[in-house]
Design goal:
Blueprint lengths: L8 H14 L12 E5 L11 H19 L3 E5 L1 E2 L3 H14 L9 H15 L2 H9 L9 E2 L3 H16 L3 E11 L4 E3 L4 E16 L6 E6 L10 E4 L13 E4 L4 E7 L11 E4 L5 H10 L25 H14 L3 E14 L7 E10 L2 H12 L5 E3 L4 H9 L4 E2 L1 E2 L9 E3 L7 E3 L3 H12 L10 E2 L3 E2 L2 H4 L2 H4 L10 H6 L4 E4 L4 H15 L7 E4 L3 E2 L16 H18 L8 E2 L2 H22 L3 E2 L5 H26 L3 H24 L7 E2 H18 L4 H11 L21 H24 L7 E6 L9 H8 L1 E6 L7 E6 L2 E6 L6 H26 L2 H6 L2 H28 L1
Parallel strand pairs: 1-2, 3-4, 9-11, 15-23, 22-23, 24-25, 26-27, 28-29
Antiparallel strand pairs: 5-6, 5-14, 7-8, 7-13, 9-12, 10-11, 14-16, 17-21, 18-19, 18-20, 28-31, 30-31
Helix pairs in contact: 1-21, 2-16, 3-4, 9-10, 9-15, 16-17, 17-19, 18-19, 18-20, 18-22, 19-20, 20-21, 22-23, 24-26
């Protein structure tokens, strides 16, 4: 089979991905084998491939490909999330470009536009993952808005409501004024921002007195319904029971005493705005205060905003500041830094807002999920450092606000039949709702048209928390063969920033609806950062085009580049040079195969050097495999790659091929060729999870293969015992060869010029390796001697000393001068180290490691001095 002179990823990748797809290697069905199951963290249907996706999915593909080769029934379920807020925002923006405001559409017509958008643009990221080589079971692709997935969500909602775990409540919630929806506490990101503290004078009714109140949000004074002071604050004792006048709106409000106020903070006097602050709301409830909401859903001011009605909140702040100043109410304004809550999705500043919402009680759900990670260890977080974060979240969990004021998503299955607070039923279908409503209301003649379904949809995470169960139909049909076979899944690979959003909630759902964990291990990746340690993002413009990287370096090169610095839980400092390194590695492996394939094979005896070399590499391979398996067991995927990389680049390409390579123009013996090809195939098996395209291409070039013999379904190498003594002997041999090569380099002695080697053997050198030394260092003879020969260059390996007699081309006087200079420097260096070690204060006070390092320096210097003195003696 002809093999091209250059490796061409563009040609290879599409060809082999199509081949894998055509033969169904990615597809899984339940059978007798051990299942290995991964569910993809479903990317937003609006998304495109970015560096975080690349890292996360490369790691998943490495794990799934290895499991497949281990003979497990590997099942990687792909899919996308409907992403209520993000998708609705995209559709609204598209409609706006077409001159269609959302408000002009019915819910049904808007959803038609949303589905059109999803069908046209959604799922692009899954196609991009194929470019990366992801071996997902595409036949199992799920979408959180698929009919069966939606039905699962609705069924769970009804079950939880019937158990009293879901309830409707009028609460202060986080409001995103850009998306016009509530958010859960976990979807609010707090950012430190520079603002101002405004000191405003409130006149006391019936007197010339004023109280000064400090606030960061002067616009909210239009909603003030009280002023609060500490009951024991001597400054305000005379104000108890009095009223003050709120500037601009001229509203009279009471002064209320409450220990909630901190006397030392600000002026010790607080404005109370129950509609716009959670603590103010609780005080308002306690003291029976009026609630005045001054904002529209988009955070513009409503009629309570008086002459500022319709103005944006931040513009209103500037205008109100100006009016307060003009009317003499603004005492002073000073810079102030505070934490501002922003929307995790839109980045808009959050407004506290009172509204009716649906909540899920979390305390009971959290307990088994907390125990699974921190007590029983049924679920393992890798790395374990995230356990403390998990503990903090779970032990301080609050009820989950699960309703969203959107149209795109699973609509809440609550149906209202009257004006009363409790005039509603919860049911899986409109038909079931009608039956329940008739029974609850006692109105047997009630019609479907008398029911009105809740307008809100469920939080997107309320569908994805069921993901490992629902993708296998485990909610609708809990005893179906697929969920019983594939669930619990095996590993989950995700980012730590959704440890609570998604991971913790999936664990809760697993125990709540299946009575067991959803996965065994959670492998938490780091964030992808640039060389300046900045998080990669579109706004910073520091995130490369993922597909462009694949086009430039090949998918295998990019995969290797990402994983070279991707230790679990640690951020990846991405540099394109890493992808170039991956591409170079691919070319190195390709050229090594071309070299082997180019050898002429003959029926001749096997040289001793080749037999020794193949024996060594077989043992070295087994040693490396043990290390690699250990890395995999601890989810050190980057370390597993580096061990594989070093084995192939250093040991196979740089050493074994040199040991077995026939002389120029000569054939290789059949036994050596067969041995090298077998070892090459083992290398390809180890490398396949990391570089699937390159390895399959070479594998198929080695010989004609049937589909059943493809590398993707070949057997993972089996571990065997290795001979540590043999490996140590070869390491020593490499040291000797490197010593001779250094002399050649320093003295410009060409490789074609054979050298003699004399050995003063003080450690019983294994002479079986002399033939390898002779070949790789071009040594014509190896003599074992008791004394150093005259006019020879020397080096040490272990306790042995090696001498290379100098040829006529070497300037003896210049060599003596150079050695004397190096000897003088080393003696001076040893003297400085010994002086430091003779200092009692240093030895007693310095860290033990530092002292040990200095002693090692002294030993090495003394050994080097001894060798240099011998070399000089041999030349003089």
């Amino acid at each position: 089979m002809d093999i091209p002179s250059k490796y061409d990823p563009q040609r290879v990748e599409g060809q082999w991905y199509d081949y894998w797809m055509q033969h169904g290697y990615f597809h899984s069905e339940p059978d007798h084998r051990e299942p290995y199951t991964i569910v993809i963290p479903p990317p937003n249907v609006t998304g495109v491939l970015h560096m975080g996706h690349m890292l996360n999915n490369t790691l998943q593909d490495v794990l799934i490909r290895r499991a497949r080769m281990q003979g497990k029934n590997a099942c990687w379920v792909p899919g996308t999330d409907h992403a209520s807020i993000a998708t609705e925002a995209k559709v609204v923006a598209k409609l706006k470009e077409e001159g269609i405001p959302k408000a002009s559409l019915t819910r049904e017509s808007f959803l038609e536009h949303a589905w059109d958008w999803t069908h046209n643009y959604g799922g692009v990221i899954l196609q991009q993952l194929k470019k990366l080589g992801c071996s997902c079971d595409w036949d199992r692709t799920k979408f959180t808005m698929d009919p069966d997935m939606e039905a699962s969500v609705i069924k769970v909602f009804v079950e939880l409501f019937d158990k009293g775990q879901i309830y409707r409540g009028y609460r202060m919630v986080n409001w995103d004024p850009e998306a016009c929806t509530t958010l859960s506490d976990e979807e609010v990101i707090y950012e430190e921002r520079q603002g101002f503290l405004y000191h405003i004078a409130y006149p006391v009714v019936g007197s010339d007195q004023q109280v000064v109140i400090a606030t960061t949000r002067p616009e909210t004074l239009l909603g003030d319904t009280a002023v609060c002071v500490h009951p024991e604050d001597p400054r305000y004792q005379d104000l108890h029971g009095k009223r003050v006048r709120v500037p601009i709106c001229d509203r009279e409000v009471p002064v209320i005493p409450d220990p909630y106020v901190t006397m030392e903070f600000g002026t010790g006097c607080l404005k109370i705005t129950p509609a716009h602050d959670v603590n103010d709301y609780e005080l308002g409830q306690k003291h029976g205060l009026e609630i005045v909401d001054i904002f529209n859903p988009d955070a513009t001011l409503n009629a309570y905003g008086l002459h500022y009605e319709g103005m944006d909140r931040f513009e209103a702040r500037k205008a109100i500041e100006k009016e307060l100043q003009e009317k003499g109410f603004l005492v002073k304004k000073e810079p102030y830094t505070n934490n501002v809550g922003t929307s995790e999705r839109t980045r808009a500043v959050i407004e506290p807002r009172l509204s009716d919402q649906w909540f899920l009680r979390m305390e009971d759900l959290a307990k088994p999920a907390l125990d699974a990670v921190l007590q029983s260890g049924e679920v393992q977080l890798v790395p374990s450092k995230f356990e403390n974060t998990y503990r903090h979240w779970m032990e301080n969990i609050r009820d989950w606000n699960i309703s969203r004021q959107l149209w795109w998503g699973q609509r809440i299955p609550a149906y209202y039949y009257g004006p009363g607070k409790d005039d509603f039923v919860v049911a899986e279908t409109p038909e079931s709702a009608l039956e329940k409503a008739r029974a609850k209301s006692g109105k047997a003649g009630m019609q479907a048209t008398d029911l009105r379904q809740d307008e809100d949809v469920l939080d997107t995470w309320f569908s994805s928390w069921l993901w490992p169960i629902s993708v296998f139909g485990g909610i609708l049909d809990p005893d179906n063969p697929e969920v019983k076979y594939y669930y619990p899944t095996t590993d989950l690979v995700t980012a730590p920033d959704i440890l609570f959003f998604w991971v913790a909630r999936m664990i809760m759902a697993g125990y709540a609806f299946r009575g067991e964990r959803p996965f065994r291990t959670v492998y938490l990746t780091g964030l992808v950062r640039d060389a300046q340690r900045r998080k990669m993002s579109k706004s910073l413009g520091n995130s490369p085009d993922a597909l462009k990287l694949i086009e430039t370096y090949g998918a295998d090169g990019v995969r290797v580049g990402l994983l070279l610095s991707a230790a679990a839980g640690n951020d990846l400092l991405f540099d394109e040079a890493l992808c170039q390194q991956g591409k170079n590695f691919a070319n190195k492996v390709w050229n090594a195969f071309r070299l082997v394939q180019g050898w002429e094979v003959a029926d001749i005896p096997q040289p001793d050097t080749a037999r020794q070399g193949i024996s060594w590499y077989r043992n070295r391979f087994d040693q490396a495999l043990e290390e690699i398996e250990d890395h995999y067991s601890k989810y050190r995927i980057s370390d597993a790659l580096m061990a594989t990389y070093r084995l192939i680049w250093d040991d196979f390409c740089s050493w074994l091929l040199e040991v077995v390579k026939p002389a120029y123009g000569s054939p290789v013996d059949a036994e050596t060729y067969k041995g090298v090809i077998t070892l090459f195939e083992d290398n390809l098996r180890l490398l396949h999870p990391f570089m699937p395209f390159l390895t399959e291409e070479i594998w198929q070039h080695v010989e004609e293969r049937t589909p059943e013999e493809a590398l993707i379904v070949s057997e993972w190498p089996a571990r065997s015992a290795f001979d540590a003594g043999l490996l140590a002997a070869f390491e020593f041999t490499k040291e000797v060869i490197s010593g001779i090569r250094t002399i050649r380099k320093d003295k410009n002695i060409p490789f074609k010029e054979a050298l003699a080697l004399h050995v003063r053997d003080e450690m019983g050198q294994d002479r079986r390796w002399d033939s390898v030394i002779a070949k790789l260092a071009n040594v014509s003879e190896i003599n074992y001697v008791d004394t150093a020969p005259e006019a020879a260059l020397s080096f040490r390996a272990g306790s042995n000393e090696y001498f290379v007699p100098m040829g006529e081309a070497v300037d003896v006087e210049a060599e003596i001068s150079k050695l004397q200079e190096e000897l003088d420097y080393t003696r001076g260096f040893l003297a400085s180290v010994e002086k430091k070690l003779s200092n009692t204060r240093f030895v007693e006070n310095a860290p033990e490691k530092v002292v040990a390092l200095e002693r090692k320096k002294a030993e090495d210097a003394a050994s080097k001095i001894e060798t240099l003195e011998r070399s000089l003696a041999a030349l003089q």
